[in-house]
Design brief:
Keywords: Signal. This is DUF4412 domain-containing protein. With about 260 residues, the protein is of the alpha+beta class. The chain has one domain. About 25% of the residues lie in helices and about 35% in strands. It contains five helices and twelve strands. A twelve-stranded mixed sheet has the order 7-8-9-10-11-1-2-3-4-5-6-12. A hairpin with a 5-residue loop joins strand 10 and strand 11. Helix 2 runs parallel beside helix 4. It is globular, with a radius of gyration of 20 Å. The two termini are about 15 Å apart.
């Protein structure tokens, strides 16, 4: 299951409690497939997302309780993660790495340590992560009744995406709506900082805050400059979201397994 496309869209558009919630629909298409659709629901500091693939799983971010919930509809079970669980996962990952190294030959262990050393050096805090430059391009489109303008996303001298942005001035979403994203990034930070190379990327909230607006149509480009995938907004509504969307359905059992196992 890959929740990333839907969750990424949700995090971008998360709304503060002072405003009505948001319902966001996205379709992600790669190659010739029909595309995966997902819907995200946001109200205040809370976010809920169904799997964009099989719809068998759901994801909840409760910013008020500072926890993550992942549910399995087929098994009618769910898992929770709190900040202490994130710390525990970090410790388990370190332990698993050390156990794996113990089973390796001296040559394998040396090669792994050299690889991790190079990645760690590249991800050192002193190295400023590359920022995305948004270069205006000609043309635009109209998506869900909102006009969008074309930009090229350039990172380290290469165009990585062509995106049509709904300007912040449109008013349907503002930069202030990114606040919950910052809180979620803080929640995951102990893990993201442990991953080799994690610091080479700009924090998502910082990068989105610098963007010219809300991405309505985004085409990612490969190293050869050809489109690899397209993500498009299919719904963008300001509305009150029922509280049930952010709660585990009745009859579900909490799994004894920890999230991430």
């Amino acid at each position: 299951m890959d929740l990333r496309p839907a969750v990424a869209a949700a995090l971008l558009l998360a709304a503060p409690a002072a405003r009505a919630g948001l319902v966001i629909g996205t379709r992600n298409t790669q190659g010739t497939n029909a595309g995966q659709e997902g819907t995200v629901y946001i109200e205040g500091n809370k976010l809920a997302s169904d799997s964009a693939g099989d719809q068998a799983h759901f994801f909840i971010w409760d910013g008020d309780a500072n926890k993550v919930v992942l549910g399995d509809r087929a098994q009618k079970t769910y898992q929770e993660m709190t900040p202490s669980d994130v710390t525990g996962m970090k410790a388990r990952m370190s332990k698993q790495l050390e156990e794996a190294k113990a089973r390796m030959s001296p040559e394998q262990r040396k090669a792994l340590e050299e690889m991790l050393g190079k990645q760690g050096a590249a991800a050192a805090p002193a190295a400023k992560p590359p920022e995305t430059e948004y270069v205006p391009a000609s043309g635009g489109d109209r998506v869900l009744g909102h006009a969008c303008k074309n930009y090229r996303e350039v990172r380290e001298g290469r165009t990585v995406a062509e995106t049509c942005f709904i300007p912040w001035s449109d008013g349907v979403v503002t930069r202030a709506d990114l606040a919950p994203l910052e809180k979620m990034e803080q929640f995951w930070r102990p893990l993201s900082e442990q991953q080799p190379g994690a610091r080479r990327r700009q924090a998502m909230s910082e990068e989105l805050a610098r963007a010219p607006g809300v991405p309505a149509i985004r085409k990612t480009l490969g190293a050869d400059g050809k489109p690899e995938s397209e993500e498009r907004l299919t719904k963008l509504d300001r509305t009150r979201v029922p509280a049930e969307r952010f709660q585990v359905p009745a009859g579900y059992t909490r799994s004894k397994r920890q999230l991430g196992e």
